[in-house]
Design brief:
alpha/beta; TIM Barrel; 9-stranded mixed β-sheet; 9 strands
C-alpha cells in the first residue's frame, strides 16, 4: 500500500486572510508539526466597478445558503474599506509571506492581479488578458518570494488556456482539479508537462468543505464522521479553505487536522505530493 498523504490548500484571497487567519494557522501547524500550501493573491481582492457591474450576482452570493459570503467573514466596514481602496493583498504583506515560507510552508500563485475580474468574468476573458495577468503576477512573485511550483485559479475558474499558459511559464502543477487522484494535465489530446492536484472533499459549487458545512449548520461531530469516511476510502486526501474563515475558527480546524493524523496520514505540501506521485509512477514504469 502507498503511503497515505494529506495536503491542505489555503487560498489567500483577501487581506483578512493574512491579518486574521494566518497567525492562527501558523501556530497550529507548529503545534502539530505539519506544513501546508498557501496560494497567494498578490493583487487586489475587491473591485468596486466589478461589484456594481454584477449586482445580480452579488445579490445571489449574499443569499447563498451553501456558503458564507465575504461580508459575513470580515464585516461590512472592512469590506467597504477594501472595496473603496482596492489595496493589493500579498504585495503589501511580503514580510509575513516570507516568514510563512521560511517555516517550511509552500507558497503558490493564486490568479493574476485582479481576483474579482478573474473569478467573475473568466469565460469572456481573452487569452491575451490571462497571459498578461499571469506574467505580471509571476514576475512579482519571483522577485519577492522565489519561483512558485504551483498555481490555483480564483474560484477554480480554469480551462485549457490556463493550463497551457502555466506549462509555458514553467509551473509544475495546477491545483484546480476536483475529485480523483493527482494526474497529468492535458489540453485536448496533448499531454502537458504539468500535474493536476485535485481537491478531494469539497462543498457545493466549489465552496470549501468546512465552510459549506458551517453554512448549513451541520453539527461538528457529523462533519468529523463524514471526514472519517473519506479518509477510510482514500490514500490521498486534499482539503482547501480560506484563512479568513477556516483559519479564524481554529478549534474545528484543529480537530480536523488531528483526526487526519490519527488516521495515519502524513501531511505534505502540494509540491511534495506531486513529487511523491511522480516518483511512484517512475518506479512502477
Amino acid at each position: 500500500m502507498s503511503e497515505r498523504l494529506f495536503s491542505f490548500r489555503w487560498d489567500i484571497d483577501h487581506r483578512a486572510c493574512i491579518t486574521d487567519g494566518l497567525p492562527r494557522i501558523r501556530a497550529l501547524c507548529r503545534e502539530l508539526g505539519v506544513r501546508h500550501s498557501f496560494f497567494v493573491n498578490l493583487g487586489r481582492s475587491t473591485n468596486l466597478r466589478e461589484w456594481l457591474r454584477g449586482l445580480s450576482r452579488t445579490r445571489e452570493k449574499l443569499a447563498d445558503a451553501d456558503a458564507i459570503h465575504l461580508i459575513a467573514k470580515i464585516g461590512l466596514g472592512r469590506f467597504a474599506l477594501e472595496t473603496l481602496l482596492a489595496r493589493p493583498v500579498g504585495a503589501r504583506f511580503l514580510p509575513e509571506l516570507r516568514a510563512l515560507r521560511d517555516e517550511g510552508h509552500e507558497l503558490g500563485l493564486h490568479g493574476g492581479m485582479d481576483h474579482v475580474v478573474w473569478s467573475r468574468r473568466f469565460p469572456e476573458l481573452s487569452r491575451e488578458w490571462l497571459r498578461a495577468e499571469l506574467t505580471r503576477a509571476l514576475a512579482l512573485f519571483r522577485a519577492e518570494l522565489g519561483a512558485p511550483a504551483g498555481f490555483a485559479s480564483p474560484g477554480f475558474r480554469s480551462d485549457e488556456r490556463v493550463l497551457e499558459l502555466l506549462a509555458e511559464l514553467s509551473f509544475r502543477y495546477c491545483g484546480d482539479a476536483i475529485g480523483g487522484e493527482p494526474r497529468p494535465a492535458r489540453a485536448g489530446a496533448r499531454a502537458l508537462p504539468l500535474a493536476l492536484v485535485p481537491v478531494t472533499l469539497i462543498g457545493a459549487r466549489t465552496v470549501p468543505w468546512l465552510e459549506w458545512h458551517a453554512a448549513r449548520r451541520t453539527p461538528e461531530d457529523r462533519v468529523l464522521a463524514e471526514l472519517d469516511l473519506h479518509l477510510a476510502e482514500r490514500e490521498v486526501v486534499v482539503l482547501y479553505g480560506h484563512p479568513c474563515y477556516e483559519g479564524v475558527r481554529i478549534g474545528m480546524l484543529r480537530r480536523v487536522l488531528q483526526r487526519v493524523q490519527e488516521r495515519g496520514f502524513r501531511s505534505v505540501s502540494h509540491a511534495e505530493l506531486c513529487e511523491k506521485r511522480a516518483a511512484e509512477a517512475g518506479s512502477a514504469a
